[in-house]
Predict the structure.
Amino acid sequence: MAPGAFRVRSAYTQVEKRMPATAETSPASPSGHERRESVFSFPDPVNEVSARLVAGGVVLMSALTIALDVPWLTLVIAYGFLARVASGPTLSPLGQLVTRVIVPRLPLASRPVPGPPKRFAQVIGATLSVAAAILAVALGLTTAAYVLLGMLIAAATLESVFGLCLGCRMFALLMRLGAIPPEVCERCADITRGLPGSA
């Protein structure tokens, strides 16, 4: 190799070493789309302990709303359900409190259960709570709103105290009827073995 060619190659190598890493040379980092997907996703499986504690929180907030006659709290309850439908505990203050603060301090083992039935239950809760918020805040029909909150209290109490998830039972029924395709929850082919409180 000619001396001039060697000097050119050596200088190119030194410049290459000093160049900052580019997207092609540096380790891949999650794209904005991937980060959004990680935020707006529901956990599967779900820790049954966390789910029951969140249900207990819903009972407490709903009962306080009715007992203290604070209609605007229906907005807080509705937001919590919508946040959990969209992202599990990620965007839900109650979900964050339960999963990051309370559950780690409890001497209880994790109890994983399928996620899709729990998400379906949150959708039902979101429907009732949003309707209650509209009735209470937008229309001033607090009595009707509190009736819906009473339904939430009943369902959430069954889950938090007895581990009986009514929304999960509805999900199981819809799967057996073929209304929900099997690929939505592959672990739910025999959902009665995966859900607590099932016979």
